[in-house]
Structure formats: structure tokens, C-alpha cells
Amino acid sequence: MEDWDRLWKDTARLSQATARSQVDDTIDQCLDLKLPWATRLAGILAILHQVLGDDTGVSFYGVTRPWQPLVLVGAAGRPGALATGWGVPVAGIAAQEQAAQFAGEVRTFADYLGGWIGVHQCVAVPVLHNQHLYGVLEVRAYSPDYLNLAHAELVLAVGARIAAAWPTNQKTGGLEHANRSTHERCP
Length: 187
Fold this sequence. Notes:
Layout: H1 2-12, H2 20-31, H3 37-52, E1 56-62, E2 70-77, E3 83-84, H4 91-97, E4 101-103, E5 121-129, E6 132-141, H5 149-165, H6 172-185
Antiparallel strand pairs: 1-2, 1-6, 2-3, 4-5, 5-6
Helix pairs in contact: 2-3, 2-5, 3-5
Protein name: GAF domain-containing protein
Domain GAF: 40-165
Organism: Sulfobacillus acidophilus
């Protein structure tokens, strides 16, 4: 637990002005923890939210079965959808196309589900390893013109690091269950 406490103290020190190398070091620290994968993934989402700021929301949508809705596995910051369908902007398009998506103004998508909760911009990155899609990392901004190229590059890099570290025996359905039981235990 000492490592976990140190990680949270290090995470609390992060901000938008933090050097990228320090962000990378904090993510490495999280990935190296000897804790369940769901806990480490939650830590990475929290780190990303801390760096991007309070006007963002960070979510990971997992694939439970091909072409079934992507389900929320973990989140940090402002709220997002609990699930999204394949091909539905923006996370669903990233999953279907297996390519990163950046929406400078999500309200241009008539079927975007987050517009009603004030989302303006979104970056969605598929988490792929050895051509296997584990899910989609999504960052939402609740102010116009908040996200920029540096933010998108950070989200791409974090998505790639999650994919590279993904345990080969971990299915996202188990993460959904772990996330639900964690929320039931935590106030």
C-alpha cells in the first residue's frame, strides 16, 4: 500500500504544466504496481485526468464481445456515457475503424450521446495490441477549443502504453465486474 500512497501523492502534484517525462514516469510507476489490472487502469485514468485538468473527463470503454456495445470500465473526472455502440461517435467510431479519432466539436455529430451533458471536444484512441482490440480510451472536454494537438498526442501515447502493458490473460468483461465491485465498496 505504500507504493499506492506514493503514486497518489505523485499524481496530485501533476498539472497541465508538468513535463511530459514526469507524466510518463508517473504512468510507469502505476503500471509497475503489484495490484490488479483494473486498479492500475483506474490509476492511469486518474493520472491522465489530473494532467488534462478539471474541465475534462477520461473514460475507458471495454469490448465485451465483438460488435456489442462498448461498456464503461473506468472513468475519472467529468461524466461520460455508460456505454456506446460500434460506429457511434466518438469512441464507437474509434473501435469500429481501429483508428484514433479527434472531434474538434462533437455537436456536429447528430448521434453523439455526450452533447447533452456539455461535451464540446473528444479524443478517442483504440487500445490495440497484436491486432486485438481491448477497448477505447476517451477524453472529453467540456469547453470549446480546450483540447489541442499536444493533448491528443498524450492520449495516443497513453493508449499505446496501456495496450503494451495489457495482461494477456485479462479480458475487459472482468474489468467491468471489478469496476462495479470497486464502486460498491467506495463511497
